[in-house]
Specification:
329 residues, alpha/beta, Rossmann fold, 2 domains, 6-stranded mixed β-sheet, 4-stranded parallel β-sheet, 14 helices, 10 strands
């Protein structure tokens, strides 16, 4: 799929279709896992809902972003691939792109905030990628990235405002619909909106009756405020324990969010940390703070989900084990 992905408006940006999702599923099958869906009777009792956790923390590179990155990398022409790929990312997209680039044998450069978890920087390098650090703000990230692309001529694979990436992320909810019957809703975290946009793309085609809720940290709630205002509001450098959810919506993800999302609801920092701890303790699975935001939001809005069958996307498991958020010091 050779579509423009650096456009500034939807007038020139390709909007992916469900045909692109089907093509993506075939293209990435050799490079990603079909991740399991797990349940917890304890969390069901606690929330009053039937929760079905789609465990993308078990995905290649430890996050759902391996789907979109693999679709982008393996969809490149030979000439494009020869120049390599580049992106800016707080972590999971960068390490996922490094993973996919490594599988194709091409170079990958990732611009990362100097404050990004060391575990994610190490993973980028472990997959063969090059890390270039920037300040922890959207403006610094984009400025440093522009310099990298000018130097390398690499193909830009945006973390979420890219039709190839969104089509890849959409394969997650397609799998979930195969794995769980009769869902009433799917909840996923929202930062830039790539996973949510993919969910919108799949559900609007296959299961338009299933509601889509996005969960966001209260301290980085620009998507929720955008949703209420009817236009994109972008915060430059929000502070939250959910480091993967600090980036703003862009034109392409806003297209999906504004049309198909039922609501965007938030959770406080302490609620996110408690939800993360709860899943570690009860389900025995490693997840990062961003992945805990959906459960935190559900716990805060029990009446909304009570009696419903709810799919919950656990987006990733790349957490710094030496700096868990409940550790003091």
């Amino acid at each position: 799929m050779d579509h423009p992905n650096t456009a500034n408006s939807l007038n020139t940006m390709y909007i992916p279709t469900f045909d692109d999702v089907l093509a993506a599923h075939d293209r990435i099958a050799p490079y990603v896992h079909r991740t399991p869906v797990l349940t917890s009777s304890y969390l069901n009792a606690l929330t009053g809902a039937e929760l079905f956790f789609k465990c993308e923390n078990f995905q290649k590179a430890g996050a759902f972003k391996a789907r979109g990155a693999s679709n982008a990398v393996f969809g490149l022409t030979e000439a494009q691939a020869a120049r390599g790929v580049a992106t800016h990312s707080s972590g999971n997209h960068g390490l996922s792109l490094s993973y996919a680039a490594g599988r194709r044998g091409i170079p990958c450069t990732v611009v990362m905030p100097r404050t990004a978890p060391q575990a994610k920087k190490d993973a980028v390098k472990g997959y063969g990628g090059r890390v270039v650090e920037c300040e922890p703000s959207t403006s610094s990230r984009e400025e440093v990235f522009a310099r990298v692309v000018a130097e390398t001529g690499a193909e830009f694979v945006h973390p979420y405002n890219d039709p190839r990436v969104i089509a890849g992320q959409a394969t997650c909810s397609r799998e979930m619909l195969d794995q769980v019957e009769g869902l009433d809703a799917i909840v996923a975290p929202i930062g830039g909106g790539g996973m949510i946009s993919g969910t919108c793309l799949t559900l609007s085609t296959l299961a338009p009756g299933v509601k889509i809720y996005a969960a966001e940290p209260k301290q980085a709630d620009d998507a929720a405020r955008s949703f209420r205002a009817g236009h994109i509001i972008a915060d430059d450098a929000p502070e939250t324990v959910a480091d993967g959810l600090k980036v703003p919506l862009k034109e392409l993800t806003w297209h999906f969010v504004s049309r198909f999302v039922t609501d965007i609801l938030t959770a406080e920092e302490d609620e996110i940390v408690e939800a993360m701890k709860l899943i570690w303790k009860r389900m025995k699975i490693v997840m990062e703070p961003s992945s805990a935001v959906p459960l935190a939001m559900i716990l805060r809005n029990r009446e909304l989900f009570a009696g419903k069958r709810v799919g919950v996307v656990i987006t990733g498991g790349n957490v710094d084990l030496d700096k868990l958020p409940w550790m003091k010091g």
